[in-house]
Amino acid sequence: MASLTLDGLTKSYGDVAVVKSVSLDVRDGEFLVLLGPSGCGKTTTLRMIAGFVPPSGGSIRIGDQDITGLPPWKRNAGLVFQSYALFPHMTVAQNVAFGLEMRKTARSEVAPRVAEALRLVRLDGFGERYPRQLSGGQQQRVALARALVIRPDVLLLDEPLSNLDAKLRLQVRLEIRALQQQTGLTTVMVTHDQEEALTMADRLVVMSDGAVRQLGTQSDLYERPADLFVADFVGRSTMIAGTVTAPGAFRSDGGLVLTCPASAVKGPATIALRPERLTLGPAAHGLDNHVPGAVSFVSYLGAMLDVHVRLNATDHVVVQVPNRSDGLAPAVGDAIEVGWPASACLVFPREAI
Amino acid sequence: MAHVSQRPVGEPGNLTAAGLLVPATIFVAIGLLVPIAILFRYSLNAFVPGKLMVDALTIANYVKFFTDPFYLQVLWRTVRVAVACTIFCLIFGFPLAYVLARTQSRHKNLLVMAIVLPLFVGNAVRAAGWMVAFGSKGFVNASLMGMGLISVPIEIMYTEMAVVIGIIAVNMPFMVLTLQSVIEGIDRNVEEAAFSLGAPPMTMAIRVLFPLALPGILAGVILTFILAMNAYATPVLLGGPKFQTMGPLVFSTFAQQNNWPFGGAVSFILMTVTLILTVASSLLIRRRYA
Ligand SMILES: Nc1ncnc2c1ncn2[C@@H]1O[C@H](COP(=O)(O)OP(=O)(O)OP(=O)(O)O)[C@@H](O)[C@H]1O
Ligand SMILES: [Mg+2]
Q1: What's the mean pLDDT in A312-320?
Q2: How many domains does chain B divide into?
Q3: Which of A3, A39, A205, B10 has the fewest CB within 10 Å, making it most exposed?
């Protein structure tokens, strides 16, 4: 177990840079999630750490050993693939024992460690089966046991849950997190599912277009997004485009005059609003911003309702309200007032996205 | 109104399946089994010079083959050459097939074409090409002498080596294409999993790649071995008149000596030996890797 450091890691294919100078510090025992839209370079970054993609620049360190030039079989990294990649011609026990054999572990020690790893993923008794005789979730757990048994310095997971159905995904998600905490393994997981990322990570890295946009905890990303991209990608936001005309004063392209935090920089800007920070109805009246509008759409989410409110020809907001059965659910076409405090406005310079 | 079947789409009834199989079965029976049966019957006939074939039921032809050192020598040489060719095809073909299967190059189709291209030229024409290359003033000797490696041309033509090289060149595409299609079906991530668990490339190949490629290795070995055992043009042209193998022997017995019973026996022996060795090698490879 050790920390993992990426320093200016870069990968180009021809003229195209797909990973652009990524620097990260994954602490010992930390669960770090790489989050980003499809094609932003998450897998490429992870494969550089595993040693399958030679970086075009930068370095990778585990603890204080530079592993940038080491081939994959000399890095002590446990890798779990999206497709599981179990050896189809070996039993579950042989799969798990493979890494130990490669490490020339004493034969007497192999069997107990394989058994222990299988117990850890709750598959004791499955040792004699072949991968094809297991369900997807069970295969995923074998893959995990196979990576854990070698006691890797870092555990690398590339979308480990994307081949599982929704229900199983929730369960395996918790299992992986529990296992990681139990073993204290430094872990890097790649996903483009933000809910998965938010529930599992100690810290998250948001990537886009090959570069790190922000590194932080869940609340850092959600409440203090570094830029419009992060505000849009993590959680949901509605955007209002306009201009900061004076400290704390914002004028939308649609003509709304709003109060925003005084720290906002003057010039063209976009305000991002989290749906749950907005208030509907009479209660809106006492807030910094309150605007009359008309309900254009209501989407039913079970415990919550998303109420889309049109404020004028160009601006609209989404408001999330609890679904109470007090008969006050807004209906499409209702005239309604929307309000929010200045602090709910996340203001970003316009060209950021 | 036509009758509408109640069967779900895509689930052919037994009758249809049988119906579809009938032509193929008849073709195999007439095209393959009947000639073999006739051949076997011929091989039990007697040969009387001048009268050609005489109806009989004798094993004299088989006794003649297995008691004459000349014929045994021909059989042994054929097996030796075929085994050598098959082993070399496998050793050289596997890396080539692997690269072909795993390459991300845009020119992959060109590479496959380059492998297949030699098949567009008939065996005889190709062997003629080799004759030019192997001759005492040919390309090989000329280059070796040009580089100063040898001073007197070496004898390549009419040696076993010439025949082995010639047959390898003929059979290689079959081996490579068979292996390539199987390797392409192996998940690249499985190889990477082995690497990440600490297996260096050779260990990965032995423990993961070869066992998973086994069906392709078997198919490739069987295919090239059968082709090598039955080679005709290459041994005749590159081995010369004294380098007798089973294929040419069958032909000369039938066509030149007009000895149909003995020709039948030689054919039958060739077929049986090929079959036995094929089955034996399959079992051996299977036991080694599965
Ligand atoms: N071998 C390659 N040659 C050229 N370009 C590549 C290669 N591998 C990946 N890329 C490009 O690099 C970019 C990043 O790919 P990567 O697989 O890292 O994305 P990702 O973030 O994992 O996406 P996803 O969420 O869809 O898995 C993509 O635009 C991809 O087309
Ligand atoms: Mg990916």
Answers
A1: 91
A2: 1
A3: B10
Pocket test residue of A9, A15, A18 for ligand 1, highest count of atoms within 8 A of CB: A18
Q: Are B42 and B253 in contact (CB under 8 A)?
A: no
Please, is B210 exposed, middle or buried when counting C-beta atoms within 10 Å of its C-beta (0-12, 13-18, 19+)? middle
pLDDT digits (tens, 9 = 90+) for B270-288: 999 999 999 998 888 888 7
Instruction: Identify whether B189 is part of a domain.
Output: yes
Rounded mean pLDDT of B146-161?
A: 85
In a domain, B244, yes or no: yes
Q: What are phi and psi of B81, to 5 degrees?
A: -65, -45
ipTM: 0.85
User: Please, which pLDDT band fits residue B13 given cuts at 50, 70 and 90?
Assistant: low
In chain B, what residues touch A83 (CB-CB under 8 Å)?
Answer: 187, 189
Q: Using CB atoms, which residue from B195, B198, B208 is nearest to A87?
A: B208
A44, A52, A156, A159: residue to mutate for ligand 1 pocket, most atoms within 8 A of CB: A44
Does B115 have pLDDT greater than 80? yes
Single-letter code of the amino acid located at B7: R
| Amino acid identity, position B2 | A
Q: Which residues of B, range 187-206, sit inside 8 Å of A by Cβ? A: 187, 189-190, 192-200, 203-204
Q: What is the CATH number of the domain that holds B218?
A: 1.10.3720.10
For residue B10, the model assigns a pLDDT of: 47
Question: What residues form DSSP beta bridges with A61?
Answer: A5, A66
Quote the domain boundaries for residue B182: 54-104+160-289
More confident residue, B5 or A217: A217
Percent of all residues in chain B with a pLDDT value above 70, rounded to a whole number? 94
Instruction: Name the residue at shortest CA distance from atom 3 of ligand 1.
Output: A13
Q: Which helix (H) or strand (E) holds A113?
A: helix A107-120
> Has residue B249 been placed in a domain?
yes
**For A11-65, what is each residue's pLDDT tens digit?**
999 999 999 999 999 999 999 999 999 999 999 999 999 999 999 999 999 999 9
Mean pLDDT of chain B: 88
Distance CA A62, CA A3 (A): 6
Close Cβ partners of A337 (under 8 Å, ≥ 6 residues apart):
A280, A281, A282, A284, A285, A290, A291, A292, A293
Take atom 9 of ligand 1 and give the residue whose Cα is closest: A44
Say whether pLDDT at A162 is over 90: no
pLDDT, tens digit, for every residue of A327-338?
667 888 889 999
Give the chain A residue nearest B198 (alpha carbons).
A73
**Distance separating alpha carbons of residues A59 and A61, to the nearest angstrom:** 7
% pLDDT > 70, chain A: 98
Does any domain span residue B234? yes
Q: Is residue A134 left, alpha or beta, with left meaning phi > 0 and alpha meaning psi from -120 to 50?
A: beta
CA distance B199 to chain A (A): 6
End-to-end CA distance of chain A: 38
- Protein residues with CB under 6 Å of any ligand 1 atom: A 13, 18, 36, 38-44, 192
**Geometric angle at alpha carbon A17, from A13 and A19, rounded to 5°:** 105
Using DSSP bridges, classify how beta strands A186-191 and A154-158 pair: parallel, antiparallel or unpaired.
parallel
